[in-house]
Amino acid sequence: MASNSVIPQLGLGTYPLMGQEAEDVIVMAIELGYRHIDTAQMYGNEAAVGKALRRSPVPREQLFVVTKVDPGSLSAQRFHSSVARSVDDLGGPVDLLLIHWPPADSEVDAAVDRLVSALEEGRTRHIGVSNFTIALMERAQKRTGGRIICNQVEFHPLLDQSKLLAAATKLGITLTAYSPLARGRALQPDMVQEIARKLGRPASEIVLRWIIQQGVAAIPMSRKRENLQSNLNVLQFTLREEDMAALTSIGSAAGRTVSRASMSGRWDN
Ligand SMILES: NC(=O)c1ccc[n+]([C@@H]2O[C@H](COP(=O)([O-])OP(=O)(O)OC[C@H]3O[C@@H](n4cnc5c(N)ncnc54)[C@H](OP(=O)(O)O)[C@@H]3O)[C@@H](O)[C@H]2O)c1
Question: What is the enclosing helix (H) or strand (E) of 212?
Answer without folding.
Answer: helix 203-212
